[in-house]
Amino acid sequence: xxxxxxSDGYYTRCRATMMAGHGVTGCPxxxxxxxxxxxxxxxxxxxxxxxxxxxxxGEGGYRIxxxxxADEETGEYSVSGRITTVYGxxxxxxPLKDRxxxxxxEALLPRLSAFEEEAVDEAFLNLQARxxxxxxxxxxxxGADFRETATSAASMAEKELFTSESLAxxxxxxxxxxxxxxxxxxxxxxxxxxxxxxxxxxxMIQKAREAKRDDSSAVAA
Length: 221
Description:
Layout: E1 3-7, E2 10-13, H1 15-18, E3 38-40, H2 41-47, E4 51-56, E5 62-67, E6 77-80, E7 84-87, H3 96-108, H4 114-136, H5 144-158, H6 164-174, H7 184-193, H8 200-220
Antiparallel strand pairs: 1-2, 1-3, 4-5, 5-6, 6-7
Helix pairs in contact: 4-5, 4-6, 4-8, 5-6, 5-7, 6-8
């Protein structure tokens, strides 16, 4: 992965990265007592606030690529040069057709009021606490209820069967480093079928907006 450092208002590839294996092991900007911050790939630049990447074009000039700041909520950022490419927080390309599909779906969903969003946040915090307590007591008698619910959700996920509740729970478990081994198969199924970047709060907000849309449609009918 390319490392960049900032110099003269631009992000440029560190020579130690470019010349790896050619006897260059240190950053040329790191003089005695001076520490230079490095950023991994365009994603690192985006998460640092964005900026312009300058590369030599091989003809005596430079090619400038603009990197947008990463979105605080989604982690998405764009890289614009000859073309513009959008990346997710996992630094993988988000295809245009996926962005268009998401935009269409987003336009059809009603926004939540502040009160409704607070209710979702409260439910999310409660779910986080339940998952934390359940994992901590996984092998203890008091953890039996959570263990049964979580293993059932994981078993369903392995068959690509999900409910809103089971998926919210597994997405929350997936954000923890101490997830029980018994849930591994289900978590891998979520990663494979749903998302490699679990964001349970975003999922719960989405479901609340869908429910609000469905309620409005029912009233109108």
